[in-house]
Amino acid sequence: MGVSVKEVAKRAGVSVGTVSNVLNRPESVRADTIDRVNAAIAELGYVPNDAARQLRAGQSTQIALLVLDIGNPFFADVARGAERQAALTGHTVLLANSDDSHEREAAHLDQFERQRVAGVLLVPSDDAADRVARLRERGIPVVLVDRGTADSSVASVAVDDVVGGKTAAQHILDQGRRRIVFVGGPLAIAQARDRLAGAQEAVDAVDGASLDILETTSLSLEQGMAAGARIQELVAEGKCDAVFAANDLLAIGLQQSMLTGAGRVTIPGDVVMVGYDDISFAAAAVVPITSVRQPRERIGSTAVELLMKERDAADGAVREHVLFQPELVVRASSTAQ
Amino acid sequence: MGVSVKEVAKRAGVSVGTVSNVLNRPESVRADTIDRVNAAIAELGYVPNDAARQLRAGQSTQIALLVLDIGNPFFADVARGAERQAALTGHTVLLANSDDSHEREAAHLDQFERQRVAGVLLVPSDDAADRVARLRERGIPVVLVDRGTADSSVASVAVDDVVGGKTAAQHILDQGRRRIVFVGGPLAIAQARDRLAGAQEAVDAVDGASLDILETTSLSLEQGMAAGARIQELVAEGKCDAVFAANDLLAIGLQQSMLTGAGRVTIPGDVVMVGYDDISFAAAAVVPITSVRQPRERIGSTAVELLMKERDAADGAVREHVLFQPELVVRASSTAQ
DNA sequence: CGCCGTTGATGAAACGATTCAAGTGGGTTC
DNA sequence: GAACCCACTTGAATCGTTTCATCAACGGCG
Predict the structure, then answer these.
(1) What is the DSSP string of B59-106?
(2) Is A234 helix (H, G, I), strand (E, B) or coil?
(3) Secondary structure of A4-29 in the HEC alphabet?
(4) Is B206 or A189 the better-scoring residue by pLDDT?
(5) CA within 20 to 30 Å of A184's CA: A215, B72, B213, B243, which one?
């Protein structure tokens, strides 16, 4: 169908081996031969066939990145970081979306196996341990992203969500607030669970402080808006003077619902609010939202670095775990007035 | 390295051809043979090698989708629609991000050529006509997405941005406003240009109505916030009583800047505001934003459909162009009070 | 003049799946 | 019992690259 090395070789009057050498080891080919071959390539419009190259090589140069939700700007930045780092070693990032569904996650991972990708960066939907084990058995290195070191046998890069949660709650307590409500979920998601656990630690250390939980079914804007109504009730009943949202999408939804609701709740007057992720919408909210920032691009690039180490390491090598520390970005939603 | 058909065949006591038949044409294989082969596959943990299959087939089952900005939730939805439709024909979507850069766009397209993808869905960064022509020469069908039918020789699916702009402006005029400011840019981007042109049409038809232009350097939240200051001046000078933003990111940034600025501008009292895209953040803004909705998922799924038609069509086939009509979603930001 | 080392080019084997013409065997028919 | 069918199976050829052992040419050297 397309133009192949064979035709380029004929055109340039050399053998196929030489064409391949021009492409991959030009230093071992005489300059005028190189020119002749390149001329033939240009004239014929030859484009190498990756499938053939890959078949011979035994593995692709693609690194798969499977995220929970491409709609979340957080993951877009992680992907950017990964792409940048991958490019350094001639790799390419294959971006896929599991939409938090086990089925889709499994389907994508199957596909990656068939493609013999160079590695998988996985933001696991829940407990993907067996799937991961299977990939590793097949010789495909895996790095877990944005997920604590629950399973220490797999390399991972994450941000310490427990510390993040603790920092957020501590900041709220420092503002003098005592009746905190955590909004987030489902708690089956490790990120939500860890952030909550961290917040609990901080709250437990302060007498008279309480932490209630308002569990949501997803970490989305819509769920945030829905939860807003309940928060307003709690505020009216004097049971809530601060909200810690498991991510910024929730926080934005909450804020909208609370500011426009019948309850006339003010932020940060009635309720201090802290979010998580520091996506750009957080700073652009009407009351800019204090948020826990994660080094998003850095997470992506580090994940690729770990993947390369995994690949190069001998089988029984020690798995590396990178844990970044989050950073609190204080804005108007939590600044005492 | 991995397990291949050959080993499965040996284990099951059949030939490689039979294993292949079990996988691809089970109806032509006896039931007990199928069982035996499947057992061998399970025991050995065999996973087909896509590269080999693809090499033989001459083309991959991946459809590439190259967007301007994965960070924009709009494209996430387009991708979702494309993925859903592609799955119906056993295809897979390869998502890539050009970040509005010609270089990255070119690099990705080169990569797609090497991979012999089944087709490319392209949101062109600017004028990608020659790149597209080249892909088509190589036998790779292309569908332009979210881009008018500037080049009628390439199939395309888009939303009528001129109509969308006109609808938005007409709605503003219907609210009795006459001093409209269009915020968006750069005007080199077709989407921005077309939306402006549509608005101009509507304004021209009404005596005493004016349309000023505030050009931005990108369609981002940050640019919206920056433009907000200027809008407040114009409002103070009595030169602006309505804003039409080229997309919702801008609108959200504008709103935040205007509502919290020193000018104490109210929405929709002082300024009526209309955005574009109807991303979920628009409905969640403090003053929910009236916006022009595009059938996002539908754009993605239709693009894949067109791609399949392109592929099946004879060489000289007529290129199809689908143009969806946008829909105005009215919310508080433009509702007279 | 013959030998050797070096540099560069060659061409066949291999990667793993699919395809398809050819083959095998068992059953049916006359 | 020969001829023929039908339903499966077989196995070699093929896809486009890369790799590597082998080979050719040439210049230098004794």
Answers:
(1) S-SEEEEEES-TTSHHHHHHHHHHHHHHHHTT-EEEEEE-TT-HHHHH
(2) helix
(3) CHHHHHHHHCCCHHHHHHHHHCHHHC
(4) B206
(5) B72
Q: Note the CA–C1' distance, B25 to D8, in angstroms.
A: 13
For residue A262, pLDDT over 90 is answered with: no
Picking from B50, B70, B111, the nearest residue to A79 by CB comes out as B70
Banded pLDDT at B205 (limits 50, 70, 90): very high
A1–B97: do the CB atoms touch at under 8 Å?
no
What's the CA gap between B268 and B273, in Å, rounded?
7
- pLDDT tens for each residue of A142-173: 999 987 666 678 899 999 999 999 999 999 99
Domains of chain B: 5-48 (1.10.260), 58-159+296-325 (3.40.50.2300), 161-294+329-334 (3.40.50.2300)
Structure confidence at residue A337 (pLDDT) = 53
The confidence score (pLDDT) of residue B280 equals 85
Cβ-Cβ contacts under 8 Å, B73 against chain A: 71, 73
Q: Other CB atoms closer than 10 Å to residue A134's CB: what's the count?
A: 17
In terms of Cβ atoms closer than 10 Å to its own Cβ (0-12, 13-18, 19+), residue A196 is buried
pLDDT tens readout for residues B128-178:
888 999 999 888 999 999 876 666 788 999 999 999 999 999 999 999 999
For residue A128, the model assigns a pLDDT of 80
Are B61 and B90 in contact by the 8 Å Cβ rule? The answer is yes
| A60 near B CB under 8 A | yes
Question: Are A51 and B48 a contacting pair at CB < 8 A?
Answer: no
Q: Which two tokens stand for residue A119?
A: 């590695």
- What is the residue whose two structure tokens read 């004097």? A238
Q: What is the pLDDT of residues A78-99, one digit of tens each?
A: 999 999 999 999 999 999 998 8
Contact call for residues A293 and A327 (beta carbons, < 8 A): yes
Whether the model pTM is above 0.85: yes
- d(CA A330, nearest CA chain B) in Å: 18
Matching residue, tokens 């934005």: A252
- Residue to mutate among A23, A43, A47, A50, with most B CBs inside 10 A, is A50
Nucleotide closest to A46 measured between CA and C1': D16
How far off is chain A from B179, nearest CA to CA, in Å? 25
A77 chain-B contacts, CB cut-off 8 A: 71
C-alpha distances in angstroms, B201 versus B84, B166, B325? 37, 6, 17
pLDDT the model gives residue B317: 66
* Both tokens assigned to A301: 């690039």
CA R_g for chain B: 26
pLDDT at position A215 over 60: yes
Say whether residue A208 is in contact with chain B using an 8 A CB cutoff. Answer: no
